[in-house]
Amino acid sequence: MKKYGILLVMFCFVVLQMTWSQSHKKSLPRPDGNICWSVIDDIPVYPGGTVALRQWVIDSVAPGLNSLKSSAEGKLLISFVVLENGACDSFKVVKSVAPEIDTLFLNGLKKMRRWTPGKFNGKPMPIKFNFPITIKRERENEKNTVPKTKE
């Protein structure tokens, strides 16, 4: 009987926790004092989707890597807010690769087209978006090589 009592208490705790977390709206304050929602109904979408966004970065921003002195590689994480009108604002480097590379991508992403804004309860809302970028340089010995296949 004691075992069932403990299970009942644990079950009540889980149900209470789930109910509480669903009833409280999760939001993040922005520097200008407005609220940026983190739990939403519809996420912001770049025109053409994620594939189009990545292709735009490859075509428009990444070519600038060749002119930089830095040869650093790694994962760059940039966050920004997609506003109610689809414009992007509040760009911030969350995870850096190198200052020179960070600046290149920050300045490039600020030139993005307007997005379809995210929605909460059917209304456009400012939504924070995290965009990971992998920086990997092509090495001289990797150029023009055919990948080996298993036999």
TrEMBL record:
InterPro entries hit by this protein: TonB_C
Q: Name the GO terms of the biological process aspect.
A: transmembrane transport
Query: What lineage does UniProt assign to this protein's organism?
Result: Bacteria, Pseudomonadati, Bacteroidota, Bacteroidia, Bacteroidales
Gene3D superfamilies associated with the record: 3.30.1150.10
This chain belongs to which protein, by name? TonB C-terminal domain-containing protein
- TonB C-terminal domain: from which residue to which, for each copy? 70-133
One Pfam annotation reads TonB_C
